[in-house]
Design brief:
The protein is an alpha/beta fold. Among the domains are: 178 residues, Rossmann fold (3-Layer(aba) Sandwich); 75 residues, ACT domain (Alpha-Beta Plaits, 2-Layer Sandwich), CATH 3.30.70.260. It has 17 helices and 14 strands.
Length: 413
C-alpha cells in the first residue's frame, strides 16, 4: 500500500520511537453526546493537549532530531501561521537549537506571543503563507540555517503520522479517520500509518471551503489562487498543498471534504460546550464535516483528530456570543416605547417575570423616524433557549410593547 511513496509506515514507527517520552501521548475518547448528534460513533483525538496545544510538535521534533550536529549549531528557520512555529520554537529551545520563525502579518497575536515566549526570533512578514515561505527561505539561505517546512518534508510527515499510530493502537477497530487538511502533512502521515495498520480503513480530509487547494489537487483540478480572505480556520488556510503530501493523499486518502465557516463555528462551540475542550477553528473542521455529511458517516466508528487548541481569546468569545445568538439564547430586542417615567421599569418587569435576564440596554430619543414623544429601546436579553425567547417576546406584545415599525413584540437580530 505504501510502496513508492516518500513516507512509509516504517518511517512513522521510527518517528514514534524517536519521539517517545518527549511528547504527550494524547488521549482518544468516545463522545456519547456527539455520537448521538452526528449519527455515528465519534472518537476524538485530543491533540490540543500537547504542550504547545497542537499536533505540529510531532513533525517539528522529528525533523529537529534528524539534524546533524553542525546543522543544530547553525540553527533552523521555519514559516508558519502559528502551530508549526510554536512546535519548532519550543523543541528547538529545549534542544538548544537557535530558531528563526517567519509568520504572516495576520497571524493571531496569541500564536506570535507564544512563539516568542519559547525563545525563537520571530519575523512577521508577508500577507500569507506563500509570502512568509519566501521570506523564511531567503533568511535561511542568507544565514546558513536549515529550513524546516511545515508539511512538505518526509520527516515532518512521518512525525505527524504518529497521531494515527496512537489512535489505532488505542482503538483498533475504527472504520474511518477524519483529519483537517491545510498543506497536508497531518493527513499524509496519518494515512500512511492507518492504511498500513488497517488496509480497509477510510481516511477523509476536511478543508474550509475558502481554501480548498487539496480538494482541487485530489480531483485533478487546477489549483485556483485564493485571494487573501479571513477564516476562522487559519491553521488550514493554505493556498497550495505540498508536492509530497499531494502524492500521498492521492494514493491513500478516500476524499477531502469541504465545510463552511458557519459549520466550523458551530462545531467549535459544540466541542466547547459538550466536551468542555477548547479547540481552534482548524481543529473543529473534522467534527463539522461529520455533521455536514451525516449519510457518509452514518453508523460508522469515526476517529476525529482535534488538531490544536490555539485560538485567540477574543475570537473565542465572539464565537460563543454568535452561537448563543443563533440558538436564541441571546436576543437583541428593539421596541418603540412612550418617552415617559415608568415605561422602562414596566418593560424590565415583564422580561424579569418571564425569566429573562437583561444584559444591555440602549435608550434612544434622537431618531427622527418616530413620534417626538416616543423613544427606541434596544435590549440584549438572555433566555434559556429559543422557545423561552419566544415566550419573552409574546409577553412583551401582550403588555402593549411592539417592534419599532411593526406589530411584532421584538426583533431577534
Amino acid at each position: 500500500m505504501n510502496a513508492g511513496l516518500p513516507v512509509t509506515v516504517d518511517d512513522v514507527r521510527a518517528a514514534a520511537r524517536a519521539l517517545d517520552g518527549a511528547l504527550v501521548r494524547t488521549p482518544i475518547r468516545h463522545s456519547l453526546t456527539l455520537s448521538k448528534i452526528a449519527g455515528c460513533e465519534v472518537w476524538l483525538k485530543f491533540e490540543n493537549r500537547q504542550f504547545t496545544a497542537s499536533f505540529k510538535e510531532r513533525g517539528a521534533l522529528n525533523r529537529l532530531l534528524a539534524l546533524s550536529p553542525e546543522e543544530k549549531k547553525r540553527g533552523v528557520a521555519a514559516m508558519s501561521a502559528g502551530n508549526h512555529a510554536q512546535g519548532v520554537a519550543y523543541h528547538a529551545g529545549r534542544l538548544g537549537i537557535p530558531a528563526t520563525i517567519v509568520m504572516p502579518l495576520a497571524t493571531p497575536f496569541t500564536k506570535v506571543k507564544h512563539t516568542r515566549d519559547f525563545g525563537a526570533r520571530v519575523v512577521q512578514q508577508g500577507e500569507d503563507l506563500i509570502a512568509a515561505n519566501a521570506a523564511a527561505r531567503a533568511i535561511a539561505e542568507d544565514e546558513g540555517l536549515t529550513f524546516i517546512h511545515p508539511y512538505d518534508d518526509a520527516k515532518v510527515i512521518a512525525g505527524q503520522g504518529t497521531a494515527a499510530l496512537e489512535m489505532l493502537e488505542d482503538v483498533p477497530d475504527l472504520d474511518m479517520l477524519v483529519v483537517p487538511v491545510g498543506g497536508g502533512g497531518l493527513i499524509s502521515g496519518c494515512a500512511v500509518a492507518a492504511k498500513a495498520m488497517r488496509p480497509d480503513i477510510e481516511v477523509y480530509g476536511v478543508q474550509t471551503a475558502l481554501y480548498p487547494a487539496m480538494v482541487q489537487a485530489m480531483h485533478g483540478e487546477p489549483i485556483t489562487a485564493t485571494p487573501p480572505v479571513q477564516t476562522i480556520a487559519e491553521g488550514i488556510a493554505v493556498k497550495a498543498p505540498g508536492v509530497l503530501t499531494t502524492q500521498i493523499c492521492r494514493a491513500l486518502v478516500k476524499d477531502v471534504l469541504v465545510v463552511k465557516e458557519a459549520e466550523i463555528e458551530h462545531a467549535l462551540a459544540m466541542l466547547l460546550e459538550i466536551e468542555k475542550t477548547v479547540v481552534e477553528g482548524a481543529a473543529a473542521a473534522g467534527f463539522a464535516a461529520l455533521m455536514a455529511n451525516r449519510a457518509l458517516f452514518a453508523g460508522r466508528k469515526v476517529g476525529v483528530v482535534l488538531s490544536g487548541g490555539n485560538i485567540d481569546m477574543r475570537l473565542l468569545s465572539n464565537v460563543i456570543l454568535r452561537e448563543l445568538s443563533r440558538e436564541g439564547r441571546i436576543m437583541s430586542l428593539e421596541l418603540e416605547i412612550e418617552d415617559r417615567p415608568g415605561i422602562l421599569a414596566r418593560v424590565s418587569a415583564i422580561v424579569g417575570e418571564a425569566g429573562g435576564n437583561i444584559l444591555e440596554v440602549s435608550h434612544n430619543r434622537m431618531l427622527t423616524g418616530i413620534p417626538i414623544k416616543s423613544a427606541t429601546l434596544i435590549m440584549v436579553v438572555e433566555a434559556r433557549d429559543a422557545e423561552h425567547g419566544q415566550e419573552i417576546r409574546e409577553r412583551l406584545a401582550a403588555g402593549g410593547f411592539i417592534q419599532n415599525g411593526g406589530d411584532a413584540a421584538a426583533m431577534n437580530r
